[in-house]
Amino acid sequence: MLGKSTVVDLTHTVADPAGASERARPDVAGGAELHGAAGSTRDLGTRLDASGLVGKARGSVAEIPSRELLVRAVVVNIAAKVAESPDYQVTVEDLRSWERQNGRIPRTSAVLLRTGWSRWWAEPARYVNQDAQGVPRVPGFSPAAMAFLVAERQVRGVGLDAMARDVPAGAGGEAASPRLPFGVWQLENLVNLDKLPTKGATLVVAPLRIEAAAAPARVIAILP
Fold this sequence. Notes:
Glucose Oxidase, domain 1; two-stranded antiparallel sheet
């Protein structure tokens, strides 16, 4: 059926899937409540965060139409910048630079951020990389870059090979992290992004179909 296509699994293995899934349960507002320390997000393994969809036409992962989980993928490589600055946040200029070399980011695609951070997966403390205030110092999307992808490029989703950065209000003198932009899902804790082409892959996202704003997911890339 796939012919000569190459299939790449972008999913981390979770040692205790039952225990991990129990840490994501619906709260009274229809969102997901993650229990435990900052490492909980990592413990869930590869997952889909649909909080940007809550309050729109649907309110949970279970309500996302299957057709919206089959998308074209583009990969933005910032691994070199992350090597210099572990909590580097991709900028709008980084995205425009990518477009100058590869063409416009396709509408309804998923933009995957290759940070190289997945190499620390087997070392939980280093993967979470908390500072003295308990704030994870990990790479990710800047609020401006996320807003650009949603408003200007109308992407369907984003993803990265690290955990999503969550900064509590007032932690380390920083403002709270913004919620995921309205109408967009996010994949976190991906792996093997170094095996994907810059563009041309098709992403198959299969989250656990639960009534929550986040769920563990199996993510597969099909290469032409």
